Amino acid sequence: MTTLNHYHYKRLQEFCSSVFVKAGVEKEQADIVAASLVQADLRGVDSHGVVRTAIYLKRVEQKMINPKAKIRIEKEDESTALIDGCNHFGAVVGDKALKLAMKKAKANGVGMVGVKNSNHFGTGAFYALRGLKEDLVTIVMSNASQTMPPTGGIKPFIGTNPLAVGIPCGECEPFLLDMATSVVARGKIIVAAQKGEAIPHGWAIDKNGKSTTNAEEALKGSVLPLGGPKGYGISMFIDIFSGVLTGAGFGKYVNNMYENWKAPQNVGHFFITIDVNKFMDIKTFKHRMDLYIRDIKTEPKAEDVEEIFIPGEMESRRSEQRKKNGINLSQNVQRELTNIGMKYGVSLKDALMLNHNTEGKGV
Amino acid sequence: MTTLNHYHYKRLQEFCSSVFVKAGVEKEQADIVAASLVQADLRGVDSHGVVRTAIYLKRVEQKMINPKAKIRIEKEDESTALIDGCNHFGAVVGDKALKLAMKKAKANGVGMVGVKNSNHFGTGAFYALRGLKEDLVTIVMSNASQTMPPTGGIKPFIGTNPLAVGIPCGECEPFLLDMATSVVARGKIIVAAQKGEAIPHGWAIDKNGKSTTNAEEALKGSVLPLGGPKGYGISMFIDIFSGVLTGAGFGKYVNNMYENWKAPQNVGHFFITIDVNKFMDIKTFKHRMDLYIRDIKTEPKAEDVEEIFIPGEMESRRSEQRKKNGINLSQNVQRELTNIGMKYGVSLKDALMLNHNTEGKGV
C-alpha cells in the first residue's frame, strides 16, 4: 500500500518541470525550480517541497512572476555583484547569483552577490549544497514577508529570514546549517491548531502581543524570533543584507506570496562564497573539519540521545532514504498536483514508485 | 556618595593603560587593550570591562600572553589575509586584523581576515564600531573556550562564540548587534547562584545533561546554546570560521583563559568588511536604513513596552550616560584594581569622578 503515495524523486521532478514548461517556463529554468522543490522534499523540509508547485504556478498565471524575464547583472566588480532578478522565479535568479558568486570566489577568493526583484527561492540549502560540491564555503541569506514582531512589538514586521551556511569536510558529512530565524516553523503551530493542541510558551504571541499557548490565537498573532532579541537581531541583519543593501524590499516592503496579488514579492537574497585555499590548503582544512566533527560526535550523550548530529546530517540521511524509498506525499498534496497535472496535461501517476522495494536499488 | 565609586572613563582607561605599560606592554598597544575594556564598561557590558584587567595581567605575568610578539601576516591576497597573532593580546591582534580588513574593503569592496594564535579580544562591538566609523559593514566573529554542549550532548564542547554585525545608518543610531550564542550569559547564572535563586528551564543543564532550575547545579553543568540546535549550529560555524579555517584552536583546542596556565589560549577570530558602494551608493543606503529603522521604531508596542529598540541602541545610550556620569565599579573590582595599581605604582583614585554633577559636562 505504501507505494501508492510514494513518488520517485526524479520522476516527481520531471512532473513539476513539465508543468512549469507548459505554463511557459523555459525547460532549463523549469528544471531548476523543480529540482529546488524536490530536493526540499528529499531532505524532509516538506514545507518547501512540491507543496509549493501550486502557489508558484498561480503566481505565474497571475503575472506576479515573469518567467520570460531576462535577469540582469546591474553592478559588478572583481569580488562583488548586484543582480536584478527582474521578477523571475527565485530559484532561477538564485541559481544565476550563486554561479556568479562561485566564479568570483574561484577567481579572487571571495564572491559576494546581492539580488533584488526576486521571489521565494526555496531553501537556502539548495544553494549551499552546490557550493559544497565546488569545495567552497557558502553563506546564503534571503528575506521574506512579515511574520515576526521586533522585540517589544506585537505585529509581524520582519520575516523568518533564513540563513544557510555550507562548509566542506573530508570524509565526514559536510556542515550544512539551514535555519529560519523563528523559534519554530509556523507550520508547527498550524498543525497544533488543527489537532486542538496547546503550544509551549515562547513560540508565539497573540494579536495583542501577549504570550499564548493557544495555537489558534497564535496564528492570529505572530511567531517569535529565536532567542528573543538575538533572533530579532539576526533576522534584521539578514533583511538588511538581502533587502536594504540590494534595493529589494525589506520589512513591510516584501510582499506576501499568498496574499498579495497586486505586486511582485520583491524578495532579496545575498550570497557569500569563500575559497578556503586563501586561508589554508583545502586538504588540511578538510582534515581539520573531520577532526572537529569526529570530536563532537564522540562527545558523551544525554540519556535519551542515540547520536549527536552535525547540522545537515539528519537531512542528508533522510535524503538518501527517500531517494531509495520514495517521497511520501499527503492526500492533499497528491490531489492538488493531480489537478495541476490535468490542467496542464501531465500525469502525476507516472511519478509513482512502481515497486517500493526494488525500484530504488539502482539509484 | 555616588561619586566615590564612579570613575571617569578617560582616566580609567589611562589607569588600565598605565598598568599594562608597567607590565611590559608598548604604550600604543596598552592603549588599545585599555580602550577595549573601558568601552565595554561604558556600553554596560561589564563582564567584558575593566574587571578583566586582572586576568589579562596575570596571563602576561605567567607568560601566557606575549606583549612583545611581532604579529605577522602569514598569507595575503587582494581581498583576504591570514594573520598569525603570535600570542599577543587579542585586542591588539584584532586591531591589526580589522585595519587590514578595512583597507581591503576600501580598495576592493570586500575584506576577509582570519586570525590564529590570539587571545580573548574583548567585545565584537569594539571592532564593529570602528568599521561603522568608516561607513563599512562589518562582521566580527571569535571562538572561545568550551562552555556549551552540542545538541544532545551533556558536556561543554563549544564556546559561547560571539557574533557582531555593524551596519551604518544616516541619521538613526547604527545597527550594532553583538551577541554570544548562548541563551544567557553564564554571569547571570553565577548571580542567581550567589542569591540562591532559581533559574528558568532552558538556560542550562546539570552535569548529567538534565535541564535544571538550580543555579548551583547549572554552574557544574553547561549553559545552553540559544534556540537549541539553531544556536548550536551558529556557534559551530563561528568556531569553524574563527578556528578551523585559520589554524587556531577550535572546540576543545581553545584553552580556558582562567584555568589553563600551561599553554596560550590559541583563540581565532574572523573579520569581514564590506564597502556598501559596491552594491548601492552609500547615501541611498543610509536613507534606506533610516527608513527601515524608523519603520520598526514606530511599530505598535506591547502593553508594558515603552520603546522598541534596534540592536546596539540601548548600549549606545548607556555609553553616553556613563561618559557623563561615570562608570560605577563594584567594591570587588575597585579592590582588585587598587591592588593592581599598588603593585605597579599607578593610582586608581586618580580615575575617580571628582564631581559627579559637573565633571561630565564638558565631555
From TrEMBL, chains A, B:
The keyword Oxidoreductase applies. GO terms for molecular function: oxidoreductase activity. Signal peptide: none annotated. Keywords: Oxidoreductase. Pfam families: Ldh_2 (PF02615). Gene3D superfamilies: 1.10.1530.10, Hypothetical oxidoreductase yiak, domain 2. It comes from the Bacteria. The keyword Oxidoreductase applies. Belongs to the LDH2/MDH2 oxidoreductase family. This is Malate dehydrogenase. It comes from Gracilibacillus dipsosauri.
